[in-house]
Write a structure and sequence with these properties.
alpha+beta, Porin, 8 strands, 3 helices
Length: 243
């Protein structure tokens, strides 16, 4: 009888020992905090943007301008030899649609129309119409660390490309010629707030290099003009509405 009790006690002891060892092994196989979790890309999330970028985005969402429409007028004036032919175009009609990427950078597309005229041998009186379709990028300068007089002007630099469509009506000859040319331009501008975040008054000056295909032809040598090379300059004043 005692022998049987000892056998039963030994079996129970071995069963308890086996259960303890299996539970210890399972505990050892569980990942330790801070070790296995680091291998999981979803367990330790790190934002892609730092706090400065997040703050800047929040400021732009609250204070920023998103879209704008610009309607303006001004003048076109040519320099060089072509400036001896074309008179100053006044007024110029100018329209732009502007999209702001952030506080500093904006993109815009626009269209402008201008009329020039001249009289020169051998073609006599000529009326010229220019229609420009342009795409530009604008960069607004950071004025936080400058005086209030500069800050209120909201200065910017602008550069872009355009396609210029030209129509020349030769009054003496009774003919009309049409062509188009690629152009690049760059300049500076300022925007004065009339109503903050709603309406501004803009002034912009640019230099345009228009590559007319006949710019090296000697059409007007009888008028002492060897060719029609030269750049165009523009000054545009506009009212800008922000949305």
């Amino acid at each position: 009888m005692n022998y049987l009790r000892r056998r039963i006690g030994l079996i129970l002891f071995l069963c308890c020992l086996a259960g303890y060892s299996s539970s210890s092994r399972a505990a050892e196989e569980q990942p330790q905090a801070g070790s296995q979790d680091l291998a999981n890309p979803f367990s330790d999330f790190v934002p892609f943007e730092d706090e400065y970028d997040i703050d800047e985005d929040e400021r732009f969402m609250y204070f920023g301008r998103f879209f704008a429409l610009s309607l303006g007028t001004g003048m076109h004036k040519f320099g060089g030899n072509i400036g001896k032919l074309y008179n100053t175009a006044l007024p110029v009609l100018d329209f732009k649609l502007i999209y702001f990427f952030d506080f500093r950078l904006a993109g815009q597309i626009g269209i402008s129309s201008a009329s020039h005229a001249f009289t020169a041998d051998p073609n006599g009186s000529v009326e010229v119409s220019l229609l420009r379709i342009n795409a530009d990028m604008k960069y607004y300068f950071d004025t936080k660390n400058v005086g209030a007089a500069i800050t209120m002007t909201n200065p910017y630099a602008v550069a872009g490309v355009s396609q210029t469509f030209r129509s020349q009506a030769f009054q003496t000859l009774g003919t009309v010629e049409k062509d188009n040319a690629f152009a690049v331009s760059g300049g500076l501008g300022m925007e004065f707030a009339l109503k903050p975040r709603k309406t501004s008054l803009g002034i912009e000056g640019r230099l345009h290099k228009i590559f007319f295909r006949d710019r090296y032809e000697q059409t007007y040598q009888l008028s002492d003009i060897p060719d029609t090379t030269g750049d165009m300059y523009s000054i545009i004043t506009s009212v800008i509405w922000f949305f």
